[in-house]
Amino acid sequence: MELHGRDHGRLDNAGGPVEISPRHAEILTLLAWNRDGLSADRLSLLLTDQTNAVDNLRAEMVRLRRVLEQTSPRIGIASRPYRLETSVELDAQRVLASLERGAHRVALGAYRGPVLPSSTAPGIVQIRAEISARLRQAMLSDASAELLLEYARTDEATCDAEVWRACLELLPARSPKRASVVARLNRIEDELRPDGSAAPARNIPQR
């Protein structure tokens, strides 16, 4: 199931891709992330803090099972606890697996933006934050200058001064790319100035 940079999930199965609603994507993501299953109470807490959350969850499960029967019959959801009867692979899990084996370029290529970016479900927010943080740390710790620059140009890191400074440290002293990195850092720092005034010109640091 594809989640990165998408508000709707997309299931890729033998019958072709199927787009599913944001709420159903949240439920399937949480169940795929917690393979041993989740109680109704726990799953409802990961989805929402509203009253009658468990009753609403049960009604949503009926709708989700109906959708899966029509579009992806191989995917079943058991109860007590809720759990997937068939493994569903998340693109988010592939990103983490790539990071764990040191395949940073593969991980960055698979990371097409935050997980379900419009979701406010507490469990999804946690997953989104974990993947974002682990990718950022891996890029800062182990990426080459070229790969770190690629990451810095993503929407997520474009205003991250620490990432751009790390790019500057990794680039060779005579690299023609240093000037654009310094210019980007200057813009970031200028935007952070409380009075909105431009900062004085800064020299390009040398290695």
Structural key phrases:
mainly alpha, disordered C terminus, two-stranded antiparallel sheet, 207 residues, single chain, 9 helices, elongated
Kindly provide the radius of gyration, computed on alpha-carbon positions and rounded to a whole number of angstroms.
Answer: 21 Å
Which consecutive residue ranges, at least 5 long each, have pLDDT under 50? 196-207
- The fraction of residues assigned to DSSP E strands is 5-15%
Question: How much helical structure, as a percent, in the residues?
Answer: 40-55%
DSSP summary, beta strand count: 4
Q: How many domains, in number, for the residues?
A: 2
| Number of alpha- plus pi-helical segments | 9
Mean pLDDT: 90
Distance between the termini: 44 Å
What's the quaternary structure here? Answer: single chain
Shape: elongated
Major sheet description: 2 strands, antiparallel
- The spatial strand order of the largest sheet comes to 1-2
Give helix and strand order, one letter per element, not per position: EEHHHEEHHHHHH
User: Structural class, please?
Assistant: mainly alpha
Description:
The chain is mainly α. It folds into two domains: 1-142, no CATH class; 143-207, no CATH class. The protein is 53% helix and 7% strand. It has helices spanning 22-33, 40-47, 53-71, 91-100, 104-110, 122-142, 145-152, 161-170, 178-192, and strands spanning 9-13, 16-20, 77-78, 83-84. It has a two-stranded antiparallel ribbon with strand order 1-2. A two-stranded antiparallel sheet has the order 3-4.
